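Quality-control log, excerpt.
Job 1 of 2 completed; input and output follow.
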Amino acid sequence: MKTYFFLFAICFSNYSFAQDIFISQLKNQNDTMCLNGIPYTGAAFIIKNGIKTVETNYKNGFINGVHILRNEKGNITSSAEFINNKYNGKVVYYYDNEQKKSEEIYVNDYRNGMAVYWYENGQKESEGNYFDCSNDGKWIYWDKDGKKIKEQIYDKGKLLKETKF
């Protein structure tokens, strides 16, 4: 039995098991989050008053994957997809009542693609596309009761046409 344990210990002595850690255990070294001087890969979080207020994942010291923020009640206030510390993918913000506030698509830290915004009552406020953080294409706007109030046409941030209803 001792021989098997000894062999197991030798074979797996260099293998590290992934574990969740507190973000406070990480140290920022040249914009890279490190644990004991090594760029960290794994999940990390912050707990306040028993609630995980921040959950994130790192790969080689950079935020990669979904980053979640919660308020003091434990409700999600935002979730964002990251690749190498940059917004890449869906970024969603929520009202305190857990209703979506906005949903945007990012590419390399820039809003690029479809975006939707809502009023706190759940009615859609506006939707349209972004190109390099500028309004692009058709944008539609509604009032708090869901009535369409205007449409706008943009070309890379330049307003070409507006129709009010």
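Job 2 of 2 completed; input and output follow.
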Amino acid sequence: MKLFRADVADIASFISKRDINGLIAALKDNEKDIRWMAAGGLGELLAGEAVEPLIDLLSDRDPDVRWKAAESLGSIGDPRATEALIHLLGDPDETARLQALWALGKIRDRRATRPIVLCLSDGDQEIKTAAIWALGSLVTAVRLQHYERDCSTGARESEPKPRSPWKRAGGNPATQEKKEFLRLPKEIGRRFRATAGN
């Protein structure tokens, strides 16, 4: 089987022509710089069809390629990348972890909430800052969803609100998850205060 070989000019051409297949093929190039540029091009083009190949690239042997793949997945914003990006939070490379946090904040998938909270205990201040931003992005997304739901149902502030199903005991499989989400502000504050002096 013939290995794919590309150069900088090829990558520039693929991007200008929006050749997604060419960029995806370049992700398997032997040169790390070519893989890095191809990943960046796919993120620049917001290529949704490249999500799975970019997820595979999160396991690349080169840390620069890994973080570039994470950055591009964040730009694309597809929640299919959430689990792989959560796994990248444990990467030994600081920049890879940082880009994973930014990407998760852009994707705004609530499955990432708890892993992001755990990053508040990281010894690096930049990681903590990125985690705070990502959590803020998740909270904003949830509030926006509630606002859009209220608008679509015609709910008004002056109307009496029905008792929240969150407060009922049982009957809602998501109740525990919602309770955990509501406890987040206290946990975030506790973790950040505990590590602020590090």
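Post-run check on job 2. The chain is about 65% helix and 0% strand.
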